[in-house]
Write a structure and sequence with these properties.
- Chain A: Belongs to the complex I subunit 4L family.
- Chain A: This is NADH-quinone oxidoreductase subunit K.
- Chain A: NDH-1 is composed of 14 different subunits. Subunits NuoA, H, J, K, L, M, N constitute the membrane sector of the complex.
- The complex is a heterodimer.
- Chain A is built from 3 helices and no strands.
- By secondary structure, chain A is mostly helical.
- Chain A has a domain of about 70 residues: Helix Hairpins.
- In chain A, helix 1 packs antiparallel against helix 2 and helix 2 runs antiparallel to helix 3.
- The N and C termini of chain A lie far apart (about 60 Å).
- In chain A, about 15% of the residues are buried.
- Chain B has a domain of about 260 residues.
- Chain B contains 26 helices and 4 strands.
- In chain B, strand 3 and strand 4 form a beta hairpin.
- Chain B is globular and about 110 Å long.
- The chains are: A mainly alpha, B mainly alpha.
Chain lengths: ~100, ~650
């Protein structure tokens, strides 16, 4: 019997995912959007871990490590984009201002 | 009772730190200071209560609290668990009481700094992490505290982050200690695989039973030693500590003199059963400590920056502790740790007060004759300097240094059957170091407080600063009387306190050892008086041109060595990866493909023109519609993705 029922894990993951999704859709600050994306990734990871515990399979935790690495890479790339935008002379974090392609 | 108080001891500075961090910018400087002092003060009170409770119990009694299990898998387990025994009692008293005094001082020192909330948040977080480090009964839990103090040290060295030199110093300290932390983690993993747990008692029992192979014990001890050396800024990691003086002075006093840098000493004393089994590592530790204490003292002798002199002297004094640890004189190392915390905090805080009152002048040759302008601070600094030098009988430093020297004298290392290393050589080095300590610190005293006056001092030292200074003065003078040398009246409270936990290390020492140990600091003081102190001193300034002086002033050129050994090869590697051959080949292929595709495109243009002309009208109307969707706003795209996902899910579920 796992200490934390699988249904609760899925419920928690859904709530986390919704929080992250709302964050991505509602926030305009790119840093907050990145953070929300990380929350969504962690929600997915939580399901993996929960499923791994439910079916006694270590693969769930392996997937969690992969997602962890993915999230780190995603954050690094996102932050790099923000820094590049800043270096190009766009000192704002508002995602909606970057909608025009300029070669 | 103890089960509640022990977590509360850590929780109260942690809570204060969280509140201060969260309320940054909303509370006044005074409120922030009061809050931080309350948090640390509460834990000081609790630590006194706990130590009284523990000492009134049986001699080998400990207080164990397990908060919650952390990791439990087959073959390994780790808990968040704390333990209070007689070694950690000494440490929590030092950390909380010296920490409280420094916090009180910092309220006045930092009161007009805009980042005061960040400062106090980091300082109290440091106290909490240090208490976790000290109290943890599980090595993995200890590692949390170990990393936490490293983080706080980084945050506080780079506190004034708008100067690039400060952030560079912070990064340097972070990288250097991180190397040691990696080694420490390797050691912990070795122990974990060998013993199946990182609980300190289990690990030490497994080592004592012979359950762990001797080679594994040696390797683990070596790795842990490397971690401790990096944390305590010993050879070869010593270069980060002088640069760490870029932080505010209370930080230098608390983290880089009194507590954090002694974490390595504490860790080794805590794991002494492991190190006793690893004789070569002990010998290495003693030799490195002896070298460091000599090198630090020599470098301190030629510095001209007041705070850097104290930093190098810290390195040198930590060298004494490692020498004592290497020789198995555990009590002496912890005793010196305690007295050093008192007098070095006193020296740093006094130096900070002097620097503030002379408009941030740190060059000792531009200061001078300050004993008339600030007699109180001069008295405090001379008190600290006497304790550091170990002026006999009246200062705490004398008793602890004496205990170390007698422990070193009795030590001998049986490395192989034929080859043994006697402690007498190390004792000689320690004695030379004691002479140099007295010489460099009284050089500083005579140049700064005597002689002709340099910069003018203004203002007054506030009451909040003088009270901690006077408390530390009393501790630096009287803190050593609790442990007398063997030949003196039988007053051995400190070793009586620690003997149940640590193996007793009393050896009969000849009486002349104490006499020599008492004369040597006085000789250093006398030589300093002749060279720098008399009305017409022999040397005002050391000639800066001599190559040996310049070499010593930079700390033996270790930075240059590191630059050539690690930084330049790394730069070369990154250069290689930036200009690699593969990249050129790929670029060439890309160019070729581009040329080919351009020619193909040209030949097809005629045909495609006809085809597209017809389709263009129809596409344009659809294109316009799609163009509305593609407005370039990433949040709209995300919303479209979510909408599509919902629609797809709905179809899949309903179908």
């Amino acid at each position: 019997m796992p200490a934390f029922p699988f249904n609760d894990t899925v419920l928690l993951a859904t709530v986390l995912f919704s929080v992250g999704l709302t964050g991505v859709l509602v926030r305009r600050n790119m840093v907050f959007m990145l953070m929300s994306l990380d929350i969504m990734l962690n929600a997915a990871a939580l399901v993996f871990v929960g499923a791994g515990a439910r079916w006694h399979d270590a693969v769930g935790q392996v997937m969690f490590l992969l997602i962890l690495a993915l999230a780190a890479v995603e954050t690094a790339v996102g932050l790099a984009i923000i820094l590049r935008l800043h270096a190009q002379g766009r000192p704002t974090l508002d995602a909606d201002t970057g909608n025009l392609l300029q070669g | 009772m103890g089960e509640i108080l022990l977590p509360l001891l850590i929780l109260s500075p942690l809570a204060a730190s969280l509140v201060v961090f969260v309320s940054a910018g909303r509370l006044s400087a005074c409120a922030v200071g009061t809050l931080a002092c309350t948090g640390v003060g509460m834990s000081a009170v609790i630590s006194v209560i706990l130590s009284v409770m523990l000492l009134s119990g049986p001699a080998t009694g400990t207080l164990q609290v397990m908060l919650w299990p952390w990791i439990h898998i087959a073959g390994f387990s780790a808990d968040i668990a704390f333990m209070l025994d007689r070694i950690s009692v000494v440490m929590i008293l030092v950390v909380t009481i010296v920490g409280l005094l420094i916090h009180i001082y910092a309220v006045s020192y930092m009161h007009d700094d805009p980042g005061i909330a960040r400062f106090f948040g980091s300082m109290t977080l440091f106290i909490a992490s240090m208490l976790v480090l000290v109290l943890a009964s599980d090595l993995l839990c200890l590692f949390i505290g170990w990393e936490g103090v490293g983080l706080c040290s980084y945050l506080l060295i780079g506190f004034w982050y708008d100067t690039p030199a400060n952030t560079a110093a912070a990064r340097k300290a972070f990288y250097m200690t991180r190397m040691g932390d990696a080694a420490l983690l390797c050691g912990l993993l070795l122990l974990a695989t060998a013993a199946g747990s990182l609980h300190i008692g289990t690990v030490l029992a497994a080592v004592a039973n012979g359950q762990v192979a001797l080679s594994a014990v040696n390797m683990a001890a070596l790795f842990i030693l490397i971690g401790a050396l990096a944390k305590s800024a010993q050879i070869p990691f010593q270069t980060w500590l002088p640069d760490a003086m870029a932080g505010p002075t209370p930080t230098s006093a608390l983290i880089h003199a009194a507590t954090m840098v002694t974490a390595g000493v504490y860790l080794i004393a805590r794991l002494h059963d492991l190190f006793v089994m690893a004789v070569p590592v002990m010998a290495l530790m003693a030799v490195l400590g002896a070298l460091t204490l000599l090198m630090g003292a020599c470098t301190a002798l030629v510095q001209s920056d007041l705070k850097r002199i104290l930093a190098w002297s810290t390195i040198s004094q930590l060298g004494y502790m490692f020498l004592a640890l290497g020789c198995g004189a555990w009590q002496a190392a912890l005793f010196h740790l305690m007295t050093h915390a008192f007098f070095k905090a006193l020296l740093f805080l006094t130096a900070g007060a002097v620097i503030v009152r002379t408009h941030h002048e740190q060059d000792i040759f531009r200061l001078g004759g300050l004993r008339h302008a600030m007699p109180g601070l001069a008295a405090a600094f001379i008190t600290g300097a006497s304790a550091l030098a170990g002026v006999p009988l009246v200062t705490a430093g004398f008793y602890s240094k004496e205990m170390i020297l007698s422990g070193v004298w009795a030590a001998h290392f049986r490395l192989t059957h034929e080859w043994t290393l006697s402690g007498h050589v190390l004792w000689g080095i320690g004695l030379l170091g004691a002479f140099l300590s007295a010489l460099y610190i009284f050089r500083c005293v005579f140049i700064v407080f005597f002689g002709k006056s340099g910069t003018t001092a203004t203002g007054r030292t506030s009451r909040l600063m003088t009270i901690p200074l006077s408390c530390l003065c009393v501790l630096s003078l009287c803190g050593g009387i609790i442990e007398m040398p063997m030949t003196f009246p039988p007053l051995h409270l400190f070793s009586a306190l620690l003997d149940p936990t640590l193996p007793p290390s009393h050896a009969d020492e000849p009486g002349w050892l104490v006499l020599v140990g008492a004369i040597v600091p006085l000789a250093g003081l006398g030589v300093a008086w002749v060279l720098w102190g008399r009305p017409s001193p022999i040397m005002r300034e050391i000639p800066g041109q001599a190559a040996v002086i310049r070499f010593a002033r930079t700390g033996g050129g270790m930075d240059v060595v590191y630059d050539h050994l690690f930084v330049q090869p790394f730069r070369f590697l990154t250069w290689l990866t930036r200009h690699d051959i593969l990249d050129h080949a790929i670029t060439g292929t890309g160019r070729l493909t581009q040329a080919v595709s351009t020619s193909v495109l040209r030949s097809r243009t005629g045909f495609l023109d006809i085809l597209t002309l017809g389709g263009r009208r129809g596409i344009r109307s659809a294109d316009h519609l799609l163009g509305q969707i593609h407005n370039g706003r990433v949040r709209w795209y995300a919303a479209w993705i979510v909408g599509g996902l919902c629609a797809g899910l709905a179809m899949a579920v309903l179908a």
